[in-house]
Amino acid sequence: MSSTASADDQAGGRGNQAVTWLRLRGRDREIVVVREALDAVRGGRGACVVVEGTSGVGKSRLLAELDGMARRLGFDVVSVRADELDQYAAGAALLSALQSSNNSNRAAAAATDDRRLWLLDSITDALEDRAQRAPVAVVVDDAQWADPATLFVLRTLPGRLAASPVLWVLAVRSDTERPVVARVREDLERLGARWLTLGPLPQQDLECIAADVLGASPSPGLARLLRSVAGNPFLAIELVRAFADTDTVKMEAGEASLLHNGIPSSFRRSIAGRLDRLPEDAVRLLQIGSVLGREFDLSTAARMLGRHVGSLLSGVEVALNAGLISADGPRLAFRHDLVRQAVHENLPLAVRAALHREAADSLRAVGARSAEVAWHVVMSGGPVDDDAVTAMTTAVRELSSSAPDAAADLAQRVAGLLPPQDEHRISLLIDAAEYLGRTRRVHEALDLVDATLTVGLEPLQEAYLRLLAAEIHQAAGDDAAAMTHLQRALELSALPPDLRVRLLKTKATGHVYLGDITAAEQTDTGLVEAAYQSHDQAVVVSAMVFQSQTFFYRGHLTRALELAEEATRRAGTQSGALYLRPPRIPALWLATVMTTTDRLADTERILREGQREAEALGLGWSLPHWHAARACALLEQGALDDAAVEAEASLMVANELEITLPNPQARSVLALVEIRRGGLAAARDHLRAAEASSGTTQRYGPWVALARAGLADAEGEDGEAAALTRSFASREPTRLLAVPPSHWPGIVRIALGDEDLSVAQAVSGALHSLTAQGESRQTIGAVRAHVNGLLDRDPRALLSAITGYRSTSRPLALAAACEDLGELMAASTDTTSAIPYFEEAGQLASAAGARRDQERIRRRLRQLGVRTAPVRHHMASPQGLGSLTESEQKLIPLVVQGLTNRAIADRLYVSVHTVNTHMKHIFTKLGINSRVELTRLAIERGTHRGARRQ
């Protein structure tokens, strides 16, 4: 793949060389669209244009015209041209183009198996930095052949950077059958990309092109022949040149005409005819070159021909003079891929296959990039020897970190070239299933596992495959199916000790996910003790987290906190522990434990630091969990707006990276926030999405049940709401501890609303079973008093809960206790004493943005004869600035300063994905589309004056 980023480079790169000295004909409508897109980007907002058409129809020529227009308007143009051999290349050519011209100093990705997040963030940072200085045009020609990582970027970043002055231009063949290209099309269509389908040119334009080439108008005879090219401008040029080069055209009175009739029946035969007139050296060079690719290395061609490079020079000169190839760069290149295809397809199929096989061997022998070797092996159609399999496996694994779905497709394609029982074939299929399991193609991964299990595997192969299946099921939330695979694997004989330990550890974790702590403890027989003897600190840390989880769900909060803190401390000094999967990431688990204790305020620091470290290391698969954990902690702290932003960021990152399972916990948080705000329809939508994505999982079941019960209660469905709380009706605290403590009194309140004492008594019993000491005493004590006050209708217990909540940073829990005490007092004769508690509850609800709670409390106060101001619903002012949250307002001065989203994130010490979500909200609320519009509005309204350096 070739790329350019300098204004001095030729637009369009090498290969399909646009005939830029010829005037662009017949594309006036397309030029108008291009000009509109350039104007839109100059105005500050992003745009996307996709140019589609058959080969030779003029896509590259139109891109060359756009390139020139953009440069004249002051655009910073980044051009990338794909090659057929790039389809299996690891890395992103677009990132290489940006780094080579930008001297990017962003740190390289850590040694992780998933570089997608690092890739997206690196390119985002580079483009945002460029866009601060000038509008940017990213031009990708022959995108149907682009490397998978670049295609992944093209699917994702046009949406992320929609508010930045970046123009995305893609040229793609309309007949491509590559599935990932189809997904790029679908995603860009959803983003509103302008679609330019280049059709055949009218006869009049073809005659103008002929006149441009010949310097004279074509005669009627030549004009008739132009009809045979079906409106294809490249073929028209080749036709005219073919006759001009063979002295079959005479010039007379400014008109070009044929000296004799006759034309090849197809372009392929036309090229064959031209080859027939060339010396054998030139013909063989072109034939070998057509096998090697659109651009090819002369040394490789010489090796395949058994010749020295010097002996090919005469053939090179002839091919250059014939206009079939060019030598503008370090490699020879066919002037257009149609020329290469014609030469290639004129070779007999058996010859083509053999030459591709020989090309693979030759390239592998000189250490060529594995993507090139892989392409030739695939084109050869097999058979494949051990050396070729090794090269292909390397290509698959190199590709997996940036494009796991493409790696899986390549692995399956190579496996299809091998015999059914071949050891390499099984290994490739296992790899393919693993890579598919990192994407949304989970069902394909599991189908592949099932199909591979039927071919009669060795016990060791089957055990590894079932472990993989279990991990995929766990990632997808189907813990029960995971346990089935683990049990079957453990029943196999003669497993190595380390593999058996992995299976047992995964099974024990599965029991924790399922809420069966007893089974988890029974699985642990000797497991933790053996782990503590390991020299691998990641194993020790994992064991500590597991122990902390079992202690936590047994209700031993103090011991759980101690283990979680020690695991986090050790992980901070051992990088290997950072790659544990959620929720076994020590800091992530520590934050979960802290949310239940008196150290709720500390979760913000733990989560910010862990989240930013995960971003820096490129651990994209963990980010949705970090954002979801922050959403839960912020919801517990009563910061509804910020909790919603973090939950949305969790879903956004999962969507960008195509994570297996969008976290149902994040959807549940959004539903709970909307219930508090009064957005019941939005809450229903979030719950439908949560239930659809959670499938058969029990891991997030308590969160979904909690939100569903809250929604049913808000809609007045008391019976349904109470029924939904019965999943918490256990005197063991395991289920209750799956959600933060401020929600526990609400579960009791809903159950009592339908006079269901069993749930309320079970929750009370579970609370009394908690051994809350030290850093857990205040919170658990306040919640226990709150629950007892509701269950026993005891005002003294509620007063005790209110006193306890005042020091726990849980304002909505405090508001609920105040409202509950007010209701209890209002039901007696002491209505006057109830009023201050209702008023405090209303003030707390207002501060949190819980508009529905505030409205309910306001109605209750009016019933008690207290007049209150109507609830403000944050309706936007004409400019909409009044609708912004406090966190959103903090961003505006920094945008005015010209900081990129990354720089803003660094300044505020938050995740860049949090900033991205805030910016999306700001644009929506203000009805604008770009940072330029936001800056202009902020200056007009004076809101930029808070900008200051920190």
Describe this structure in words.
The strands form three sheets. Strands 1-3-4-5-2-6 form a six-stranded mixed beta sheet, sandwiched between helices. A three-stranded mixed beta sheet has the order 7-9-8. The chain has 950 residues and is mainly α. The longest helix has 18 residues, at 497-514. The chain contains 46 helices and twelve strands.
The low-pLDDT segments are: 6-18, 255-266, 875-879
| Order of strands, widest sheet | 1-3-4-5-2-6
Structural class: mainly alpha
Beta content comes to 5-15%
Shape: globular
Distance between the termini: 43 Å
Radius of gyration: 33 Å
Mean pLDDT: 86
Characterize this entry briefly.
This protein is mainly alpha-helical and 950 residues long. It has 46 helices and twelve strands.
List keywords for this structure.
950 residues; mainly alpha; six-stranded mixed beta sheet; three-stranded mixed beta sheet; 46 helices
Could you outline the blueprint of secondary structure elements for this entry?
Layout: E1 2-4, H1 28-42, E2 47-53, H2 59-72, E3 76-81, H3 93-102, H4 116-131, E4 136-141, H5 148-160, E5 166-173, H6 179-190, E6 194-197, H7 203-214, E7 217-218, H8 220-226, H9 233-245, E8 249-252, E9 255-258, H10 267-276, H11 280-292, E10 295-296, H12 298-305, H13 313-321, E11 325-326, E12 332-334, H14 337-345, H15 349-365, H16 370-380, H17 386-400, H18 404-415, H19 423-437, H20 442-453, H21 459-475, H22 479-490, H23 497-514, H24 517-523, H25 527-532, H26 537-553, H27 557-571, H28 586-595, H29 602-617, H30 623-636, H31 640-656, H32 664-677, H33 680-694, H34 701-714, H35 718-725, H36 744-753, H37 757-769, H38 777-792, H39 795-805, H40 811-826, H41 831-848, H42 851-863, H43 886-896, H44 901-908, H45 912-926, H46 931-941
Parallel strand pairs: 2-5, 2-6, 3-4, 4-5, 7-9
Antiparallel strand pairs: 1-3, 8-9, 10-12, 11-12
